[in-house]
Amino acid sequence: MVRGLVLALLLLLPACAGGGWNGAVQCAPYAREHSQINLRGSAASWWTQARGQYARSSVPRAGDVLVFCPTRRLPSGHVSVVRQVRNTRLVLVDHANWEPGRVTRRAPVEDVSPANDWTRVRVWWTPVEGMGKTVYPAFGFIEPAPPEGS
Q1: Ranges for the Peptidase C51 domain (predicted)?
Q2: pTM reported for the whole predicted model
Q3: Which of 41, 71, 97, 111 is deepest in the core (most CB within 10 A)?
């Protein structure tokens, strides 16, 4: 019983660590392979790792990587590749393992932060064919360019 519960919990958690324990595609390796950002480790560590290597911003551009903060639901954080900026509050992203074990393409992500700085976002959830109800904290965007002054 306990073993089955542990297995079920592991399958439900969107793990974004460097490698998949079950061969499923994970968000960090997917983002690395489908962007010009070459960082490793858990998605939650990318924001800090990017300091001094890549520009970081609160303004999205196609090709950027959106970095989600770690939370109870996302203990390893999450990363998504921005494919299109629709407006100042909406981008389309490609990401892996948001829906466990799957790659989702052109998924809407909406900025719901009061300051329009992309620190709080809602993400499309295909099973309900709409925006999810959960608001996730985000660090911002890593750009595929060196930081200014480097």
Answers
A1: 2-120
A2: 0.84
A3: 97
pLDDT at position 7, please?
A: 37
Domains and CATH numbers, the chain: 14-142 (3.90.1720.10)
pLDDT tens profile 81-108 = 999 999 999 999 999 999 999 999 999 9
**CB-count exposure of residue 6 (10 Å: 0-12, 13-18, 19+):** exposed
Which residues, other chains included, contact 92 with Cβ-Cβ below 8 Å and sequence gap of 6+?
82, 83, 84, 86, 106, 107, 108, 109
- Which token pair is 15? 């793990």
Closest CA to 135 of 42, 84, 68, 67: 68
Distance CA 60, CA 136 (A): 16
